[in-house]
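FAQ: What does the model actually see?

It sees only this:
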Amino acid sequence: MCPTIAECSELVAIDAVDPDLPLVNASRNGDVSAFEELAEKYDRKLYRIAHGITRSNEDAEEIVQIAFLKAFQNLRRFQGNAKFSTWLIRIAVNEGSMKLRKQRSDREQSLDSPPRIDSEASTSRIPQYRSNVPDWAANPDSLYSATELRQILDRSLRSLQPKLRSVFILRDIEGHSVNDTSVMLNLTPKTVRTRLSRARLHLREELSHYFKKRT
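And it is asked to produce this:
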């Protein structure tokens, strides 16, 4: 995964002409409305990807804003060796990965710190961890409601390692090819296929806990 925007520009060549190039070139020449058109075109897609990686509305919105800002600031570094959308998605994926790494680092630092006792803290501030997954055999109708399915899928995606989650989202949810996914994540196609297989297997095992009837 590329650590800098400059390295994100060094993508493999593509055969098809990028339909976004006229807007990209206009943006480079100072046409702000052209970049706004690009942002409007890819806003929802970037949000879906960012949310899929972070599983957080707030984080996804922040990642989209940062991705568009970095893309705008570095348009002249975009070499056109790959589609603009591929370059843009790669920036968003990198931002999502960095967000997860920072959150993991913050949690680890918090665990290493001595506990702080707040005498004014109320018990309502303490998170309550309890399962709210309905019993499939006892209440199948509620399980198959749209809300329950979304919750189950969300929990299953959260259980994926971030590196597997990114591959699964780009390939199976967003429908990008293996080659495009490998470019977006700076991985070899073989690595993409391996991680995708691992992600699918993990999700199948996770979902089987919810959908398997009790004997």
